[in-house]
């Protein structure tokens, strides 16, 4: 099972919260103290909570579930895309579009438009348009790709959402809450953990910390999938090696 140690968290700066004057009192149980007017997060709380979150997402993946990775802030953008692609999960790493989950039917129409444009460019169909029209269509495709490219293969709503900075992604969290989709979220000392099902108390700004959470999540998803594949393979082996039934033995 994927694990992240306290040493790794310390080295990545997971324990550094925000300035004490910006704190959210609901994060009090996860705060160790403060140093130079900066809150220090209690990693003895973070380590097991992160492990719980990883176990949840690994089990979900083993059962064929989909985890939507969400991180649109600059510190998270690249890692969200890279790690989601690595583990084959959908992602949003640019602006969250209102209704991305709660109005998924309409979003699907935009995804279809994106796929139609991709086919048009790949097949050479774009050549029947004049230069200006082709440029406009190219810009439309690029805009749709930036907004929806990470979810264009998502057939339906995700089974869980993994979020970097629940304050920055409050609209995504609100939509997930409305639909009863479990939220796994990195929550810094200035944010509200009450809307998050699996709270990961930690620094949501430092790039090393952000990459640690995202890579750990991708590893957990992949391990869950491998576990499921191993179980299927084991059952097939047992079936092949099983003794012949009475009908077979009689013949």
TrEMBL record:
GO terms for molecular function: structural constituent of ribosome. SUPFAM superfamilies: Ribosomal protein S2. The keyword Ribosomal protein applies. The keyword Ribonucleoprotein applies. Keywords: Ribonucleoprotein, Ribosomal protein. GO terms for biological process: translation. It holds the Pfam family Ribosomal_S2. One of its GO terms (cellular component) is cytosolic small ribosomal subunit. Belongs to the universal ribosomal protein uS2 family. This is Small ribosomal subunit protein uS2. It comes from Candidatus Thiodictyon syntrophicum.
